[in-house]
Amino acid sequence: MDIQPLPTDLASLADHERHARAALDPAAWSYLCGAAGDGLTERNNRAAWESIALRPRVLAPLAGLNTRTTLLGRSMAWPLLVAPVAFQQLAHRDGELGIAMAAAAQEAGMVLSTQAGVAMEAVAEAVREDAGRGPLWFQLYWQADRGIVEGLVRRAEACGFEALVLTVDSPVRAGFRLPAGLATPNLPPSSGDADFDTLCATAPTWAELEWLCGRTRLPVVVKGVLHHADAREAVARGAAAVIVSNHGGRTLDGAVATATVLPGVVEAVGGRAPVLVDGGLRRGADILKALALGAQAVLVGRPAVWGLAHSGAIGVAHALRLLRDELQMAMALCGCADLARVRAEPPVFSPNQ
To answer: What keywords are assigned to this protein (predicted)?
Structure first.
């Protein structure tokens, strides 16, 4: 893996985005960073975080400020995972290995996509012995053949993944043809694109979630929840955690922003399982807002891809470090020395406070 020099003007994730757009050809940019329809949900995700105001407290003790948390029984240095993104080698030859190693170096977690261009065993081998890394999870798109699903589960268990993330908000996906030289080593060869009726008929239901929970020793996390009733049902059916997500605005345009529904999902789950959130988080202050609204951790996808696109693994590490530093600064300025304080006295403004 080559070490590339970073651009000298990277002060925010917006700078990473600008350099990534210049580095990627239009087709790769469209696939990795595009949005569905008119991009309403993608824009609304961002606007929803921006609309939440922080309410600082002053003269609070800040010695020993730290961002440590626990997620599914595992200690983490800070509450962030890189979201699953397919075909990362479209952005850079380092691909999933680059993002995995950068995440580990920054003590963040990673969720590897089913549609990774690198075998799950290779990704796990690259980082699993790193004592400081965050959680390593494997994302599942449901397959019509349960035998394929079970095979993926067994491989993930055997090579050291710590949880399975079942993505449920994309039962119908537009076709995408890989450029020559890229493959999906975690899946058998495709027999061709299925039609709409077939996709609908084979889409997962609550029964598939229960089946999956009963077929693995790993915790199952349900990703793609936007309705409080679905969150409650997922936990009742065996989910160990839920992720509030609208797929970054890449599936249903016009879907509600994740920040908007996060508090209702947290309330519905009622502490029975952790709630995570993704979609539009671009600043450390956004992470603080998410935690203050009840999320246990957050996920980011596009920011990691931006760093990867222009500078490989070192670009990813820089993007993640920006978020971590900004989170610590936002906590200090809000008088929160640790995440327990964030949760006990959420520093988000409400007119009723």
So the answer is: Flavoprotein, FMN, Oxidoreductase
Catalytic one among 19, 247, 310, 318? Answer: 247
Residue 353 falls within a domain, yes or no? no
Q: Which residues contact 185 (CB under 8 A, 6 or more apart)?
A: 116, 117, 118, 119
| Residue 16: active-site member | no
Do the domain assignments include residue 29?
A: yes
Per-residue model confidence as pLDDT tens digits over 7-56: 999 999 999 999 999 999 999 999 999 999 999 999 999 999 999 999 99
Across the chain, which distance is largest between two alpha carbons, in Å? 63
CA 279-320-336 angle, 5° bins:
80
Question: 275, 296 in Cβ contact below 8 A?
Answer: yes
Which distant-in-sequence residues (6+ apart) come within 8 Å of 154 by Cβ? none
Q: Does the annotation place 280 within a ligand binding site?
A: yes
Whether residue 304 lies inside any domain: the answer is yes
Q: In terms of residue numbers, what domain contains 29? A: 13-53+70-172+181-344
- What pTM was estimated for this model as a whole? 0.94
Count of domains forming the chain: 1
CATH number of residue 327's parent domain: 3.20.20.70
Find out whether 258 and 226 touch, Cβ atoms under 8 Å. yes
Q: What's the CA gap between 340 and 348, in Å, rounded?
A: 15
The response to whether 261 counts as a known ligand-binding position is no
Q: At what angle do helices 258-269 and 40-51 cross, to 10 degrees?
A: 70
d(CA 228, CA 78): 26
